[in-house]
Amino acid sequence: MSHERYEMVVGLEVHVQLKTRTKAFCGCSTDFGAPPNVNTCPVCLALPGALPVLNERAVELAARAAHGLGCKIDPVSVFARKNYFYPDLPKGYQISQFDQPLATGGSVVIGKDEKGADINIGITRLHMEEDAGKSIHDRYPGATAIDLNRSGVPLIEIVSEPDIRTSPEAGAYLRTLKQILQYLDVSDVSMEEGSLRVDANISVRPPGEAKLGTKTEVKNMNSFSAVERALETEFDRQCALLDAGGRVEQQTLLWDATRETVRPSRTKEGSHDYRYFPEPDLRALMLDKKWIDDARKNLPELPDARKLRLSQELGVSSSEVEQLMATPALADYFEAVARASGDGKAAYNWVMGEVLATLRVSGDDVALFPVRPADLAQLLNLVRDGTVSHTAAKRVFALMKDTGHPAAQVAADEGLLQVGDEGAIATWVDEVLQEHPDEARRYLSGEKKLQGVLVGFVMKKSKGRADPKRVNQLLSSRAG
Ligand SMILES: [Zn+2]
Q1: Ligand 1 geometric centre to CA of 79 (Å)
Q2: In angstroms, rounded to a whole number, what is the distance separating the alpha carbons of residues 254 and 199?
Q3: 202 forms bridges with which residues in the sheet?
């Protein structure tokens, strides 16, 4: 089996669109989904004489990403022209960074190995660049259309070391990277909208061999699982090639998701083909040491630190925290409910239960959820002090969602306050015993397991308002 004779060696290049309102070198909007070619101007259309002006916000976000990934930011970095011809690149070059990138030398921990040690994936470099336009091949028969809205949108490219050894590790790296960038709030990191794109460099070698084999570059994967499948496919292809006495040829391959295969791309390029040279229209990017230090100090809390803090402070397990961390907005919502109610467990149950179930149906973002954390916390407090039963709480929650009214008001208006009054509960119990004579007779003659059924009937009759503890006590005393 060739998989035992070879190991996979993978490095990933991830392009991430920065969350700025305007493009990298002009004032055009970065709005996704605008009609074609609306967000353009002489600079991003490459009209003669137009000059680029660097977007300061893009530098801030790129620096934040670099710090968050543990990279060292160079006080001097240089923009360079990456020259190539493509119909959606009107300038004939992309402004990028080449031999003097913004930042180098970071790392990401993607999990633990069998011995419990961290699996670290090194980050070689992080540099800034602009996006090209988009060629649209499938809308007009026999023609290709060009949309330049994306031309000049600010990107960072994050290049990993060839530290990845398996396709699941590649997936773990991408998910970890995405989460870090989300929590840093530097990008929407959406593969569907193209704000996160992945190219993979892959080679194989015998285990223990230090020298790297010849690599191929695989492009055109549109999901993290597609990256994993493409790597497996290309690994198999390279192993089979070597086993048959062949040689791997350095080339660019495109992943074909429908056929689950890779095919050679028509374009071939090495860095020498790009004829990089310093961008004459932009000065070197000089960053003040204090500015760099301040950016590091003001970094938002990173996912690992937040996981640890939430589990320590709010009494939820690490696997529960993992679920709550799915998006920063969900983690924020949970944390606010848990703090306001003082009950992390109940907050977890409600957020993962009712809140997420509602969001799944509506497709809305939790940040816009009509029941705000303070209001949900109030409901949890009403349940805890026995003012509202668990059953009634779900009804109260549904009404809070529809009306926007606070929990106490909804419970009072709808008559859903829990009834602990002996007289009222006794009446419900008596009615239930009369309406279910068979169960009543068996229960009263000693069939104790029917108590739960009868409690259920009473809860239903009282529309969830009866205090189940009192109902249980009363039934027990009847069975005497
Ligand atoms: Zn523009």
Answers
A1: 18
A2: 10
A3: 10, 216
Q: How far is the CA of 12 from the centre of ligand 1 (A)?
A: 30
Q: How far is CA 26 from the centre of its chain?
A: 29
How far apart are the C-alpha atoms of 168 and 78, rounded to whole Å? Answer: 35
Sole residue written with tokens 């091949």: 137
Per-residue burial over 214-224, b = 16 or more CB atoms within 10 Å of its CB, e = otherwise: ebbbbbbbeeb
Phi, psi (rounded to 5 degrees) for 124: -70, -50
Cα 25 to chain centroid distance, Å, stands at 28
For 408-451, the pLDDT digits (tens) are 888 888 887 877 677 888 889 999 999 999 999 999 988 888 99
59 residue type, one letter: V
Q: Is the pLDDT of residue 269 over 90?
A: no
- Give the C-alpha separation, 99 to 96, whole Å: 10
- Ligand 1 centre distance from Cα of residue 345 (Å): 50
Task: State the distance from the centre of ligand 1 to the C-alpha of 157, rounded, in angstroms.
Answer: 21
pTM here is 0.85
Which are the contacts of 171, defined by CB distance < 8 A and separation ≥ 6? 224, 225, 227, 228
**What is the distance in A from the centroid of ligand 1 to the CA of 33?**
16
